[in-house]
Specification:
mainly alpha; two-stranded parallel sheet; 6 strands; globular
Amino acid sequence: METLLEELDLQVQVLPSTLLEIVGIGREDVRKRLVAGIARGPRRTRVRTEADLFAEEVVELIRRTHPEWLRRIPDRAEAERLRTFWLKKIWRQALEDSTALHEHHEGQAPVRDHIVAGQKQNSTEMREEKFKPGDLTELHGKDDPESDRAPLLGKLPGWNGSPRALWRLRLAHLTWHQLGVVGPRARITGEDRTMTDWIEPWVDLGKLRSSPESFVHMWLDEANVVDVPRNWLNWAVDFVQLTAKPGSGNPGDAQQASYLVDCDLFLTSDRRFVRVLERVREDAPFSFAETVLVDGNRRTGTPTAERIEQALSHLAQARELH
């Protein structure tokens, strides 16, 4: 694998979400071997966590539309502390003894199961209604009291229920719920406040929470897809996944997708995920990594690196033909 990376002049983007998948493996020796394989060696770049990258987009959107919400003196030390943990400390911990990380991962199983269960319910409803999504940037939702889906969108401050792009409604609901509802109480309730942790060093959340209607208006009327490509891509993949039978890996796939705006190639042996990404690409108003399908059949005895090399060779040949 090292030889292949050198010969093809490739740089591997090492994702925190990949690490979190690895620590879910039951055997400590297997976890350590896999972590070492992606964490050590040349031609590897550790990437900031997707929560950090999501938050950065939201902060820049606020900077463009509502600079009065920004902190006069950002807490750069706190932001750096968080990044140091995700870029260095958690990797070191996984290499030394990943038992605690594995136990934490197992404790998150109910959360992952809840997400997948929700997807299954929504997917079933869409298939029963024979719903076919059109342009993802133009899909609209509205507040329909008679609809069973209305509670899924939640109540947004200042929104009168009129049709809005579905991606706008989703991101408005998600960010307001995290920053305006969960954030203030999470230290008491123990709820996850990840989004608050990443945005708080840059934004005066007291000012933001005092203007809930303006915050929602920012998403419904002022934001553009190109302002928040990672957030949009995460939403779009999550939504398109509903058009097929949901799998247990869906939440992780949506996480992975958010990194694709920073890569040239994305290699996977998951055909279903490739189909989802190519459907999203049809409507995405920005470019993201080209998908490369790798043969996932291990029974052939062909080493993984060789199968990756074959996939890249086929890609190069296809490009020459075009």
